[in-house]
Each structure stands twice: as structure tokens, then as C-alpha cells.
Amino acid sequence: MIVDREPGHDALARAAELLRRAVRRRQPVAALTGAGISAESGVPTFRGSGGLWHGFRPEELATPAAFARDPQRVWEWYHWRRGLVLAAEPNPGHRALAVLEERLQDAFTLITQNVDGLHQRAGSRRVVELHGNLLEARCTRCGRVEPLAPEASGIPNCPACGAMQRPNVVWFGEPLPGAAWARARQAAATASVFLVIGTSAVVYPAAGLVEVAAAAGAGVIEINPEETPVSDLADSVLRQPAGEALPALLREAGIVPG
Ligand SMILES: [Zn+2]
Question: What pLDDT digit, counting tens, does each position of 56-77 carry?
Fold first, then answer.
């Protein structure tokens, strides 16, 4: 395989050729997205960023221990974050991935580390959420998952059993949801093209998906303004924001009109 890690038009042409070939042959394509694509919509990144809220670091709020100690405070943080997310809009990068799903149908799998629901609002229907969704609550007793009303406040209770609900997200120290992880791993292992978009790819085990895809022979396309630990695994690297690179890639691959 010809490896083209140089930025610029050659990288775009190379990425487009990989994608065009997969679409023509109806081969599976998968994408993994991270905080970068949401940051382009104005959603602050918290994981590892050190962003403070009322003097607390995310590591002091997004843990089972923090919730056990002070569920009210943890919920307040999530209600605040939910407000930020609801005020944000999907960007052209989110919309391009929805177009790709529409075109490829079952042959496309979108895996995200984001918890903001922006992919769904852009039109993506089958989203594998590795870290949950902060627009949902989960019962601490029966496990039932419910959407949160936009105006929800305080500590919500389960409509089924009345027990306290928690944000339906994966906290530090918790395992990824098993079903989502199995789907993501399967998609990575069978993809002919694997897109890595706006993720620093340092959060394991999610980062391992890129290694799985590359080892299985997928053409790996990285879209990220910054170099990352998986850049060396990529066949094509687009050093641009997703909102610019993805629409350009779809045009170049002939998936949308140029
Ligand atoms: Zn319940």
C-alpha cells in the first residue's frame, strides 16, 4: 500500500481514492470520532483538558466516588454541560458523516467517544456511543435509560422504580458499555476504510480500535489538525478540522457533487 502522510492535495486524493473504492465495492467503512469534531461546534472538551467548573476538575466530578459523595453537585455539572450541548449545533463534519451513512447504509458504522448527541442531531441514525450520552439518565437500581427533558434539574428519579438516576455516561474508572464496545471492535476488524476524526486517540481502549483496523488491513484516514499517537498508522493524514476535511473528502470521492 502506498503511504502518503504528507498534508495537502495528495493526501486528500489518496483518502478519496480509498473511500471511493470502498463505496463502489460496498465494502464496510467505519469512523471513530472524538472531542475535536464537537469542539468545532463550540462544545468544550473536558476529558484531560483540565477545564474547571466551580473550582472542580472533571476528574473530581466524573467518577462513581464523586457521585456517591455528592450526587446533587455531579448532576448540576451535567445539567450545565447539557445546556451547553443543546445550545450548540452540528457542524459540516457531523453532517458529512450523516451523508456517508445515508449512502452506505449498513456498510457504515459511526463510533463516537462524544456524549453530546450532535451526530444524531446531524442525522446519523446508527451511532455506537462508547462513552454514553449526557442527554440521557440511567436508573441506579433497575438500569433503565431515559431521555432527560431539556428543563430537567436537580437529581432526577426513575419513572419505573423511583430510584435515583445518574447521567448515562461512562465515568473515569468505569468499563465501556459491553455491547457498544463489541460493535465497535467488530466494525474496526472488518472495515476496509477506517476514519479517525478529531480524537487524540490516547484514551484506551478506544484508541486500540485504530490498531485493530490497521492490523486487519483497513485503509486508515486520519483527520486531525494535530499529530496524534496513531498518525503513524494512517495511510492518509488530513491536517484540517473535520468541518473542512470531511466535506472536501466526500466531494473529492464523488459522494456529494463537487
Ligand atoms: Zn429504575
Answer: 888 889 999 999 999 999 999 9
Catalytic residue among 9, 54, 119, 131: 131
Q: Identify which of 151, 185, 195 has the alpha carbon closest to the alpha carbon of residue 37.
A: 195
Calculate the alpha carbon distances from 171 to 105, 117, 166, 222, 245 in Å.
31, 17, 11, 26, 31
Q: What distance in angstroms lies between residue 162's CA and the mean position of ligand 1's atoms? A: 6
Q: Based on the domain organization, do 153 and 36 belong to the same domain?
A: no
**What confidence tens digit (pLDDT) does each residue in 191-204 have?**
999 999 999 767 67
pLDDT tens digits, one per residue of 15-36: 999 999 999 999 999 999 999 9
Q: Is 100 within 8 Å of 193 (Cβ atoms)?
A: no
* 54 tagged catalytic: no
pLDDT at 205: 76
Mapped onto helix, strand or coil, the DSSP state of residue 140 is coil
Ligand 1 centroid, distance to 157 Cα (angstroms): 8
Per the structure, the complete domain to which residue 26 belongs is given by: 1-43+90-131+176-258
What are the CB-based long-range contacts (under 8 Å, 24+) for 143-151?
A: 148/82, 150/82, 150/86
Residues 155, 250 within the same domain:
no
Give the CATH number of the domain where residue 121 resides.
3.40.50.1220
- The domain total for the chain is 2
Look up the CATH number of the domain holding residue 58. Answer: 3.30.1600.10
Cα 147 to ligand 1 centre (Å): 13
- Is the pTM higher than 0.90? The answer reads yes
- Residues 212, 186, single domain; the answer is yes
User: Between 91 and 55, whose confidence is greater?
Assistant: 91
